[in-house]
Amino acid sequence: MPDPETGTEPDPDPEELLAAAREAAAAAVSLIVDERPTRLRVSDKSTSTDHVTEMDVASENRIREILGRLRPADALLGEEHGGDLAADGVTWIIDPIDGTTNYLYDHPGYAVSVAAWVGGEPLVGVVADPTHRRTYWARRGAGSFCESGGTGARRLALADPPPLERMLVATGFGYEPSRRAKQAEVVAELISQIRDIRRMGAAAVDMCSVAAGRVDAYYEAGLSIWDLAAGQLIATEAGAAVEAIEGGPPKPGSVLVCHPDRIDSMRSLLLSCGIESTLT
């Protein structure tokens, strides 16, 4: 409620937002795992390989229902039902199933992502990975954590990075065929100059994997805001640098996540491999 003397809304309580995000993400995970139908109804989106399932929509509906009950005055922006970033107050940014193709094939590497943004920046982020029974979360300025299989939470912190030639690098590919072909050309140039490439298929999980030390870097072009809304905060709070591939702040179309001591050399390597051709 607004302050009766000033008429302004109080600053949101990050702990309250985190509790709401965790409740919503957990409910969505229960839905998509426990209530998954034997035969999924599937529709195409941007291309014939870019899908939305009935459970993407049901998951977002469940998240919106919970957040609407807990935080009725907040704005909502989701992959399936849209919305806008609010100029003032809290905006919840929802990816009800990040890695829909993995989910469609019942392949590991999908997640539910829920983030609370204030003033155009993430304040709270939760990424729940049901296949591996891991839930990641972060509050701005308070660190990032991972709870795995009911064993309790551990704080995430990046270790010293390996040399560039021993870095394990994650990436993803877009759905538009010409961009995908250019991205493959970049990987063909890159792979001989690093340890190896991993392509898991869910941006939020990839960013959490950097935070947890399962990969050393992640880059991708052509994402949407809901792909990185929670994951970028979790990576940042673990000590990673999160920037645009070409430099500057991260943006949906261009994200590079890496140890701060390696991000400049990783960027230079990607540019030498022709990454700029994928950014248009």
Overview of this protein structure:
This protein is an alpha+beta fold and 280 residues long. The protein has 2 domains: 142 residues, Fructose-1,6-Bisphosphatase, Chain A, domain 1 (2-Layer Sandwich), CATH 3.30.540.10; 115 residues, D-Maltodextrin-Binding Protein, domain 2 (3-Layer(aba) Sandwich). It contains 8 helices and 14 strands. The longest helix is centred in the first third of the chain and has 21 residues. The N terminus is likely disordered.
Quick description:
The chain is an alpha+beta fold and 280 residues long. The chain is 31% helix and 25% strand.
Task: Tag the structure with descriptive keywords.
single chain; 280 residues; alpha+beta; 7-stranded mixed β-sheet; 5-stranded mixed β-sheet; disordered N terminus
